[in-house]
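Field reference: sequence -> structure
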Amino acid sequence: MTSPDSSSGNRIDYTRPQSGQAPAPGQPPVPNQPGSPPAPAPSRRGGVPWTTYAITILAFILILIVVVFITQNTTHIPIKFFGKTKYESVASALAGSAVVGLVAGLLLGLVTQIRVRRELRAYRKADRNR
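Structure field:
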């Protein structure tokens, strides 16, 4: 092997190129300089976090409980809603309430997600302009 000080004629220049200046031919590119490949992202463990599995299992258990509760309550009762009385089974009233609750929860989550995405977009735009 040869050292940088060897007289073989192949000397390596260890100085960094100035900003905007391309590295000399045969030299490795300096990270974070124009024309150089992007720095590798920090390694991150792949896969789904355990909390996602736990929340999914809890959601399925809750859905199962609601379905069992609805199927066991099939008697017809008077339901008053906005001054109108309608005879309907408890199961259909509970199922309707569950669907309305699900849609309301999804819409509230969507509103939050839109707000967070706007904040992220503004942050990225500000970071780009620096």
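Note: The beta strands are 76-81, 84-89.
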